[in-house]
Fold this protein.
Amino acid sequence: MQKDAKDDFPWWLVLLVGIGLWLFYLVWANQIYSDVLAMLARGIWITVAVTVIAYSSACVMGLGLALAGLSRWQVLRQVARLYVEVVRGVPIIVLLLYVAFAAAPALVIAVNWVLGFVGAEPWKTRDFPLIARAVIALTIAYSAFLAEVFRAGLVAVDKGQIEAGMALGLSGWQRFRHIVFPQAFRTILPPLGNDFVAMVKDSSLVSVLGVSDITQLGKVTAAGNFRYFETYNVVALVYLTMTISLSLVLRRLEARMRDKEK
């Protein structure tokens, strides 16, 4: 039974927009809110940069892991499965701390060992920026989740179409580029979008490393002015504005892709 269009009207969105407009009015009219937003402005760009770079890198790694997991070579399949299972079993905040304070120093030692052979100046651990460590940790964490998303999309492609491509004499890369990936992408777009929105929120975890993102600047601001209610209202407003806007854009994109398929 088809639902009435009125039943699908996004009243929740109307409520959120109303609350958002009220908070934006407070930011415009109230000096305290205005000062807090001014303090958080720099953190917005840090959050966006961390999210975009880490997610893009995670997509590349995730696709590579998915292809390795579907490879005809058993060693590649086992290595990919081991990576995915281990990384998915570790909380992201633990992975952040491990990469920042265990893996990064170990990497510096390994790099210095190589530099010692060429007589180059050794690299210091403090020269490894915390924001770079945070991006690496988020990339590792999300690559494991995205690998499963890509794998599911690739497996969902009809094998008959792949065999048809082989009959036409297409190479493996040509079949992947023209047949497999375009169809898989339409399948995995919703979960990819969900994971991107999730990374926007999970990027707040980099504040534990002292990276000056929205959350970290919010904590610093609240500790300085003791206006916790106002400060975290603005922090929540900024995150909600980013995530809901992204969700609406992704829904519109999915709807347009469905319309093209009809």
